[in-house]
Input
Amino acid sequence: MYQYTEFDKQFVRARAAQHRDQLERFEAGQLTGDQFKPLRLQNGWYVQRYAPMLRVAVPYGEISAPQLKVLAQIARDYDTPDAALLAEAQATQDKIAGLAPKLTTNYGHFTTRQNVQFNWIPLSKSADVMDLLATVNLHGIQTSGNCIRNTTTDELAGVAVDEVVDPRPYAELIRQWSTLHPEFAFLPRKFKIAITGAAEDRAAIGWHDVGLQMVKSPAGEVGFKVLVGGGMGRTPVVGTQIRESLPWNQIMNYLEAVIRVYNRWGRRDNLYKARIKILVKAEGQRYFDEVEAEYQDILVKDGGLHTIPQAEFDRVAACFAAPALNLPSSTAEWAAKAEANVSIEAAKTPAFARWIAQNVKPHQNPALRAVSLSFKRVGQAPGDATADQLDAAAALVAHYSAGEARVTHTQNLVLPWVRLDQLHALWLEAKALGLAQPNIGLLTDMIACPGGDYCALANARSLPLAAAITERYQDLDELDDLGHIDFHISGCINSCGHHHSGHIGILGVDKDGKEWYQVTLGGSDGKDLSGPTAPGKVVGPSFSSFEVPDVIEAILDTYKALRISQSHKAEAFIDTLRRVGQDPFKAAANAARQPVEEAAI
Amino acid sequence: MGDDLQTTNTRNRPQGGLLQQKQTTMNIISAQEHQTVKSTAVISLANDADPRTLDLNGVTRIDLQFPKFTDGRAYSQAFLLRRRLGFAGELRATGDVLIDQLVQMQRTGFDVAVLREGVDASAAQRQFERFAGFYQGSAVGTQPPFAPSA
Output
């Protein structure tokens, strides 16, 4: 992991002190609510449906055991509303029709942008929480607001077997460059960068304002392919290639050009047309030409101030060297023997075998594996972790993964440095904690935003639907049989639940104060199995919350009826859908409507 | 959007005051002290204008606009004027100019800021002293921490 220098540490502490200063001036009436809002947003403090939400930045998802422990402490000691507020919130939620889990407190939530959120911390305690976070170099800098947000990356960065270039040093350099950038703190809208260095895109780069794909020339020169103008929201757009190859040390200068032209030209008259995707669509080549001219001016006229010196790259990259793992032996023979032992254990214990097959990924070091802890289970919302679970996860990370984990955009944790000979012990411990569901990549490994239970923007709740589907599909053989399905739920068009990229997507909409849900099919996040990045297509008028679980089941039954198998390998849902088209799925979904319901929109 | 807080406590609202400027590198003036001047030496530039189209000959002051403090276009204009075009005269921030944006204004090249009417200047000074340094180079000669000469 990146090791914070004294400069980095004092910077985070100064930022916490700045938040305290701003909070005190707000409380003293020296800052109005409107003046304070963009300031607290850029520290991750967002006032939600019932209470403030804190979004803690986890830069490119990489998090340490001590950091997880502090998040546990915050969940335990601060994520608590007073009893009256919670009772009022629950009473309000209870008025919404339909069965739903109760509101919960004292937990952290892993987000689709690899961050961690809390839902109940009183704003008056926010400065204390920022001080506590700063003790482990954590903060909420630019996790909200119209600025450059946390850069996201491949959860397997640095360990993936298909990796071309480790993207983490570049992600860290971008983090530093974008932190409190003076010119780009008040952009037309939020700005998200994703970066991948592997052959397979596991970072959904096509869905970001800027997507960076690391490339290596035959001569070994490292560079970036640059996409611009991707984004979800009301108008889903897949990013367009603006640069086929950019030298690695020019990334900040180039981003400066991309964002400066956006800052000058981007629309500010309409919230829904303010993202860079709208500018790129409207201006096309003219925007590309301006960025190129601006980039040349930055290099020639400004002196390329942010060209990365080799020494600086080396300093940062050295932090990402593989950790010392105290392997008994680093020989291929040892790894082969350890692997054989895992196979023997798997043959004895089918549940362990299933977990190995579904939750354990290969590693650049043949003696190691990358292991997913699943935070998708009955009784808890996708990505939620209680204080005790965060503490327990921290202990697993410390013991089994060299003290380092990754928050994934699918709202789980990956332990990237697990020894082969410790897989079984880890499985036993994870199982006892309820974090070993062998469902990674399967239907119940769904993505869901907090939705109308917590979020002020949501039109409808996500979590009751997530719970209903999780409960309906508990049978592991059935899940296994359905195979890989990206199931994504967003409570509103802001698309935090990435419904556009789901093989099956659900979007909450509001009509006459009632919750309705649009179902989309065929979206892709750009990974190999999903195919080229694309938004899903709506199957028809929206469904009531009562109908959605039956609609999902009808769609899945249609898949099972239509799929073809080749050499004992069943066709994946997304492949069947692409082969036969939407119509049979659409017909099945519409047949699952309940006629007693009033007409949908 | 439900994300709005109301200011509940308006006691002790300061009535303005003298700002100590000895450690800031920005001249912060009140709305009363700010005068628009009819002179070819002073330009007032809308925030959607391209500063590279200006004839800067004989210009001693350029007033840039923040119609709302959340509209950040003038930061890019300031950067272009100061760094790209080498404008050495005064860059003045006008409009919805508040305490918490002063440091970034200074870093993008502004040297004078006209505080919005009613804003208490007493909280300004400590903002300039808060951070020991920043990650980026600025429009006014500061190098990024990684620069070989830094």
User: Anything to note?
Assistant: Confidence is low (pLDDT under 50) at residues 4-23 of chain B. The beta strands of chain B are 27-29, 42-45, 61-66, 90-95, 112-114.
